[in-house]
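re: the backbone from monday

yeah here it is again, tokenized this time
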């Protein structure tokens, strides 16, 4: 499972004293543990799909944080966040290109926004940025 890979990478980063990598992996592991507790309370299991969603959300948070540091010209923090983004991105599956997203949308019978968004959420979780799907859909 993907979570096992992340736990092993976190231990390796700790041994290598790579605090930047360890910090971002620890954040993901903590969010995973919290979601695991929430889902167990409702009788559900947590899997790779949920972990990919956590990683994507963390990447978006890092991008927002990086934008703030760019505005105040703190290059050291920008570099650190870029490294963290690279670490997390390595755990995501290959992302679909804009053309692949267009082809999938064009192949659907019902091109209504709710239907298309549901289709991508169910079949391509972790492989697409849903805001990109939404913008492509609106441009068609």
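seq for it, each position gets an aa:
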């Amino acid at each position: 499972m993907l979570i096992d890979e992340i736990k092993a990478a976190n231990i390796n980063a700790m041994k290598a004293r790579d605090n930047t990598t360890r910090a971002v992996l620890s954040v993901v592991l903590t969010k995973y543990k919290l979601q695991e507790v929430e889902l167990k309370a409702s009788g559900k299991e947590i899997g790779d799909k949920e972990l990919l969603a956590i990683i994507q959300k963390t990447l978006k948070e890092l991008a927002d944080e990086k934008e703030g540091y760019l505005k105040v010209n703190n290059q050291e923090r920008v570099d650190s966040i870029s490294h963290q983004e690279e670490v997390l991105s390595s755990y995501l599956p290959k992302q679909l290109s804009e053309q692949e997203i267009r082809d999938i949308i064009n192949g659907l019978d019902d091109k209504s926004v709710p239907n298309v968004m549901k289709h991508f959420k169910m079949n391509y979780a972790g492989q697409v940025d849903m805001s990109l799907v939404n913008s492509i859909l609106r441009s068609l």
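The domain at 2-89 is CATH 1.10.1510.10 (Hypothetical Protein Yqey; Chain: A; domain1). The chain has a mean pLDDT of 91.
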